[in-house]
Structure formats: structure tokens, C-alpha cells
Amino acid sequence: MRIKTGFGFGFFLWIGAGLLVSSLAFHAGLSSPATPATDGAAIFKKNCMMCHGADGKGFAALKTPNFTDPKWQSATKDKEMKEVIKNGKKGTAMVGFGNQLKDEEITAVIAYIRSLKKK
Hints:
By secondary structure, the chain is an all-alpha fold. The chain has helices at about 10-30, 40-45, 50, 70-75, 80-85, 105-115. Helix 2 packs across helix 6. It starts with 8 loop residues before the first helix and ends with a helix. The relative contact order is 0.14.
């Protein structure tokens, strides 16, 4: 005895194709999610503020730089900042964040630090 469901091969082909497309779209979303622009200020607040201060002026007792100082800003190149953020600075309390922050996050932090310069 054969039971007729009313669904032919074409129906199941469409369902399979739909599941395949949905699966691929879902997988693509997991591997490369659309993220908003990286927020350097938020990253600074989370990772840097405790040693460099909320305003970026640093703490004399900790010997952290004053990021608002135009002299420091002009003397320190982005490449140098990136190196210190990634790997830390020997002889200081500055630890590296290379294992915690992606390159685009480090770049966003540098842009935020640059925005602290006194006019």
C-alpha cells in the first residue's frame, strides 16, 4: 500500500535548496559578522583608563604619559604606539595587549589617543 502525500520531488528539492541557502547565510554570518566601527574610546575605557586616567592625562605616580600633551603627541609616532600597545614596554608596568586586541582595535585606540591632544 502506498500513501500519497501530495508532495512531489520538486517540493523537497525546493525545501532542500532553501535549507542550504539558509545554512550558508547563517555560516557566513558567524564567520564574518557585520560589526559597527570599532570604538576606540570604549576600548580605552575598558583596558587603558586604570593606568592612563579617564582623561588620558596619566598619573605621575605611575609615570604614565600624558596623552593630552602636544609635545608627547608630536614626539610619539603611531607605529611606536602600536608596538607598545601590542607588546608592552620593558622597564614599565605597561603590559602588551596583542593577545587581547585585534589590529583594528589597536588602531581605534591610537585614533582615540590622538583625539585627546590639547588644541
